[in-house]
């Protein structure tokens, strides 16, 4: 594979997710970091990009300047990552897709279902990739979980139970801190806070591992810090198109919980449990059998799991390596497209704009159901009904 050119928007100095993207994109030597508009402050963005090794003429002050600059080059970036705050994802992703770039957009892909549908249409029309960073699906044992379920190890899946509950916005005295407050302000966050931020990871994970889509849901949303307009806690019941029953809890006031993403799947013939904070172990209980610990890197895992692992068993692999698996998938698909070949189907596991759109429909459904005291609401995007 030829090395691809990669650029980034957002992810400036001190940002939360920027470093994880740079580590991940660089990990396998498949991408060179050649261009960026990294910060809302143009000068800070230019300086930081150069500090990270980007040439001065490609260290841009903002994303429009980057689009113009890259359009004028023969060696324009092959993939752009959008890691800016949520409300900017739509216009940046749309502009780059329309100009013929592949995009990896951070979640949530857009602020509304309508914008999500636009992105799906534009991506389909342009033939360019629009991936969405549900990066936790890149973990080796999450991919193994999906493979086990697909090959029938659990039989028919009856129940999926998933959580993304942390305690990092639990301090009422800190609720007015500007870094926390905007997340619960409808003008900046949209119709949902905690579900749109974390719940969608858990819901997407349920679809990813079961291979089923969410059809309808019922939500109980609460603002447990009273000054908040949007929810900081939600319990969501859902149904999937393969008949599976789903339960999801998300919270930002669960003191003592750190990251808090977990998923359990229960079928007719067994159960599985995986926790993001201990990603190198998957727990498998066959019906009437004994609880087994499946270790990342052990022999006889699925090809999907083997493909997504790098260091030998017993050495922990963590979040940037999971994100790196998304980048590796993208590199393979983009390279194959450039060379007029078809990519290995195993590279097709990265989350797509259709997944980003489904999340937006779920966000709208959770907000609606929450307002209607848990009424069951269609959670499918209109264009997929
Ligand atoms: P942050 O506030 O820590 O950093 C945002 C960065 O974007 C800053 O460097 C800021 O200067 C820059 N920025 C803001 N507006 C910009 C613009 N118009 N052009 C260029 N740069 C701009 O935010 P954080 O936590 O890193 O989140 C960024 C995105 O990543 C959000 O959409 C968030 O939901 C997502 N995220 C995803 C995670 C995942 O697991 N997939 C985890 C954490 C965040």
Features:
alpha/beta, binds 1,4-dihydronicotinamide adenine dinucleotide, 12 helices, 5-stranded parallel beta sheet, 14 strands
Principal-axes shape call: globular
Based on CA atoms alone, the radius of gyration comes out at: 20 Å
> What's the mean pLDDT score?
97
Query: How much of the residues is beta strand, in percent?
Result: 15-25%
The beta-strand count equals: 14
Oligomer: single chain
Helix content: 25-40%
Gap from first CA to last CA: 39 Å
The bound ligands are: 1,4-dihydronicotinamide adenine dinucleotide
Weakly predicted, low-confidence segments = none
Number of helices: 12
Sequence of strands across the biggest β-sheet: 13-12-11-10-6-9-8-7-14
What summary fits the major beta sheet? 9 strands, mixed
